[in-house]
Known about the structure:
Elements: H1 30-36, E1 42-43, E2 46-47, H2 52-61, H3 66-69, H4 81-102, H5 120-138, E3 151-155, H6 161-170, E4 173-178, H7 181-193, E5 200-204, E6 217-223, H8 232-242, E7 243-256, H9 268-281, H10 289-298, E8 302-308, H11 316-324, H12 327-336, H13 338-345, H14 347-355, E9 359-367
Parallel strand pairs: 3-4, 3-6, 4-5, 6-7
Antiparallel strand pairs: 1-2, 7-9, 8-9
Helix pairs in contact: 1-7, 4-12, 9-14, 11-14
Amino acid sequence: MAAIYTTPLARFPRSVCPKIHDRNFNIECSAELSKRVGDARPTNKGPATLTTTTRRKMMEQNVGCQAATGVRSELDSDPNADLRQGIADFYDASSEVWEEIWGEHMHHGFYDVAAQDVSLSDHRAAQRRMIEETLSFAAVPGEDESKRPKSIVDVGCGIGGSSRYLATKYGATVKGITLSPLQAARATALSAAASLSSKVEFQVADALNQPFPDGQFDLVWSMESGEHMPDKEKFMKELVRVAAPGGFIIIVTWCHRDLLPGEVSLKPSELELLDKICKAYYLPAWCSPSDYVKLAQASSLQDIKTADWSDNVAPFWPAVIRSAFSWRAIAGVFKSGWKTIKGAFAMSLMVKGYKQGLIKFTVITARKPA
């Protein structure tokens, strides 16, 4: 079990990550979008990438499918609606260029400490390794077929890379949720190309209000989506709610460092750096690894474990920066618009945060009592 921390939650001033003011979010149906967008369909040359024109067409069509997905939009009265819309727009704009350069996995890679001269293919292998290292750390059964997870939810699924990987590894059914209509549509198209439509399903939904019954999933998987959650306590409670008795809960996320004894907040310079990152990537206030441990304990979870993998992900952001300044990537970034451009310029801030020991790449795993 992880060490238990007693430092208080870091308090962020109101200036950190203010609301992002955008238009109201209109929930769309990923399956309907996949049907409507011709060049999102797989071809005999493999899954096609979405063009900028396609993305714009998807956004303009604004297909309302609450009944089809079972998701209801109540965001007009939701104080987090603007943040949610900002997140959706950010990933609608940036997912295509990410996929073109980095492929289907939209998360850090796991590397040997002090790894150098890593090729792009090695980086993609490191992203798959991240999934395997996480499952191993959580001790999710793999050898015994009777104990493998049979139902999985991928919270913040991106374009479905983890969902397809987990479905293939375990033979499980996987449901992925994202705020981005484009991501949900692209995940659906890629899964069809991989002949996994019967195993995986994607929809636009809020991680803080998931459209699933209590106790549905043997494995609740959140790979780098927790940092977007404005209410970490509600996030944890929702993950616990949808987990089956005895089910595994896995959170891999960005945290700030734990507070030192006597500290009541991070340093002003640290808060300023996090504020800049927040504004670029649509993040609310951060929390520490020990804060997550407390939330897991408050939810009566068992076998709580945490690890700091910051050293193991160190090569990732420098590699992303190098790839972002290739001619192909530069063209894609500028076609994607200001949100993606702003995110590209903020990548060096992530490197700075890691080097300062401010940002911690954290894994938290636990089990719901049987």
